[in-house]
Amino acid sequence: SLLIVLVCVLIADVRKLAAAVHAEKAMRERHEAAERRRRAVDAMRHPDPELDPSHIIPADELSAMIDAVVEAATNFRYIEAGALLERVQASISHATDDEGESEAPPALVAAAARVQQLTAPGGALEYVRARCATCKEALHDLNEDASWSLASDRDGTRVQYKRTAETLSVKIEAVVDGVSPADTIYVWREASLYKHWFPLMTDSRMLHEASIADVALHLEADNMFAYSDLVLRGWGCDNLRDGYMLLCVRPVAEGELPPSVAVPPVQTKKRKMFPPRRVPAVIDILVEPLSASSVRFAYAASLPVEPRVPHWAINVILQQGMAQIFSRMRDVARKMAAGDPASLHLQRMRDPEHAHVAEWIRERVDPYVHALEETL
Fold first, then answer.
1. Of 197, 269, 208, the residue nearest 234 (C-alpha)
2. What is d(CA 318, CA 312) in angstroms, rounded to the nearest whole number?
3. pLDDT digits over 320-363, tens only?
4. In this structure, are residues 152 and 323 in contact, taking their beta carbons and an 8 Å threshold?
5. So what's the pLDDT on residue 321?
6. 233 with 214: CB under 8 angstroms?
7. Contact between residue 225 and residue 274 where contact means Cβ atoms under 8 Å apart
8. Continuous H helices in 222-310
9. pLDDT in tens, 156-212
10. Which of 11, 115, 131, 335 is most exposed, with the fewest beta carbons within 10 Å of its own?
């Protein structure tokens, strides 16, 4: 009987070893496939000399370049628009220094006046400088690892965090397969459906749509420990010229939304372990299509946390909440890709009132993905 027990233990150990080898091989194959896709993405990136602010634009070409800035901003290409605007303003400043304001040619004077008008409150370029700067800061945080601590790295999802006396920041990176890149962006955009998939969220609704890629939303997280809500404004940056789209979400500032938009009051009556609060979260999401059925995501969120919140509560947030974001989003997006009639997102996409959003996303993402597939 002892021999039988030893044989059974040996068989179990062999099975565990075989499973570990198989898992390691599968993980290596996924990494190799992701690296091949990444090389294809890199091959499609081409630096544009027009975005170099050191290249001075002749006065008679400034009007056309300002048109290009407006076109980029109108299509939510804020990084490109910011670089072009910087070049236009540098050229105007350089020419003004050389010519003097009194001797400046009419084309230069007209360009300077037009830029001033466009960048003023209510102008077509009002947000360009600020949003370009926000995008660059977000990209730095999403691509920098030195200041982060590893919380977990398993099942293709890597979770990192950093905590100060008052803030918890979480960064999650994952490659999600078996999904349509356009569908995943749609999942992020439809704020009113977050309550059906996003970890810890118990209610969600759209407050305001400034444009198809600029919305305000209200989220609620109500659990046995605490009640929290978030009033946020999220906007997208199309930078597929460099292989990705960026979603930036910030707390809504007082007076930022039109007076007609009803912002829910801060809750004060919820009795929990921790007092109710409105959380001024800062969230950035990088969406990088790798193929027609694969997307790399990087998600970073920073939110205030009281020093007295224990480590175990932080661990619950990291392991039971944030770490599940992409597995849940993958399940939602795979249902969409499979045409599952039970998919709430697919139902929303097919609703004539909302179909234009999905069409708008596909018009931008699908041609890029098609070109990407041809390089694979």
1. 208
2. 10
3. 666 678 889 999 999 999 999 999 999 999 999 999 999 999 99
4. yes
5. 65
6. yes
7. yes
8. none
9. 788 888 888 788 888 999 899 999 999 999 999 999 999 999 988 999 999 999 999
10. 11
Query: What H or E segment, with its residue span, contains residue 303?
Result: strand 294-304
Cα–Cα dist 9/16, whole Å: 11
Q: Structure pTM?
A: 0.83
Measure the CA–CA gap between 327 and 176, rounded to whole angstroms.
8
Pick the closest to residue 138 from 352, 283, 335, 348 (CA basis): 283
Query: CA 52 to CA 57: how far, in whole Å?
Result: 11
Residue among 159, 169, 141, 162 nearest 286 (CA): 141
**Residue 229, both tokens:** 């809500």
Tokens at 172, concatenated: 């999650």
The token duo for 38 is 């990444």
pLDDT at 325: 85
Q: Which two tokens stand for residue 86?
A: 């910087």
